Amino acid sequence: MPYEFTPEEAQSTAEIVAKYYSKRRFDVKCETEIHHEAEFVTTLICWKRKFAYLIEVLAEPDLDNRIILFKNWLGARRIYCEFHIAVKEGQAIPSAMLQKLKKNNIGLILVNHDSENLDFMLKSNNPALCVTPDPTLNYGNKKHQVTSLIEKFNGGERHDALRDMCELAEGLTHNLLIKAIKKGRCNLVLSNVENNKIDWSGKINALASKNQHTGRPTITEAFKVDLHSFRNARNLLDHPVPTVAEKEKREKQFAERMMGGPRIVSEIIKLKNSIK
Asked: How far apart are CA 190 and CA 130, in angstroms?
């Protein structure tokens, strides 16, 4: 490939990376901008459908601040891609560089020149699939748990993070209903709820029911719909996806549902605190 910006010492490493992705039927471009407004051009862009791996190949493991700024730019525009740094295997990676890569969710690829294998040492996230909840939301004593799940999701563990967020919301719904019963806001039998004889769907419906001592429901009809919608995220988790295209579609749906999770959690906690 003709290189204009990539140092000569890094070009053999870049060729191995390009060959790796070409064999996997990616459309590999050299020193091509991802967007006309981008102020940084990576060594390689490996396309498949609408997804791209952006790979900056370095001669030495030295992280330029422009790389961090470029990752921030990708995130701000939610570009559907993953961004990686690639270096020749065997070089010492400074701990400060590793910390910066981890902090900014930039991937790290170690390239073995002898076997022409790639070792994906650090994962990269996909800016288009990251969630950024409203910073004003209040999670009470669940703040650390919610924050950890968001970080887990944005770090690439989307399936597990969304599953755990669903379990958190279900547990909080359970606690809200128990308090509503104890405070005379709902006429269900407490033991049936405590022993989980009613599923999550039934608990949501009970909280939205007008058949309560106060004559009004604990949650609004609109929030009932939101809760059921978030509950249905479990169908995404369990539904098999036979093709890559369907997997990509589901990943985007994961992000949409996960974005609603923190708001759901915050609202349930607010409702529970409002019951006196």
From this structure: 39
Q: Tell me phi and psi for residue 107, to 5 degrees.
A: -75, 160
**What residues have CB less than 8 Å from 190, skipping those under 6 apart?**
178, 181, 182
* Mean pLDDT, rounded, for 178-203: 88
Q: Which CATH number does 8-128 carry?
A: 3.40.1350
Closest CA to 227 of 177, 184, 263: 263
Residue 43 burial (10 A CB sphere; 0-12, 13-18, 19+): buried
Q: In this structure, what token pair is assigned to residue 100?
A: 């910066």
Give the residue extent of every domain in the chain. Answer: 8-128, 140-274
What single-letter DSSP state applies at residue 32?
A: -
Plot region of 116 (φ>0 → left; ψ -120 to 50 → alpha; else → beta): left
d(CA 14, CA 6): 9
Query: What's the token pair of residue 108?
Result: 């790290």
Written as one string, the DSSP assignment of 213-261 is TTSS-SS-HHHHHHHHHHHTHHHHHHS---SHHHHHHHHHHHHHHHHHH
Tokens in use for 156? 């690439």
pLDDT tens readout for residues 196-244: 889 999 999 999 987 666 678 899 999 999 999 999 988 888 777 667 6
Structure tokens belonging to residue 137? 């939301």
Distance, C-alpha 50 to centroid of its chain: 18
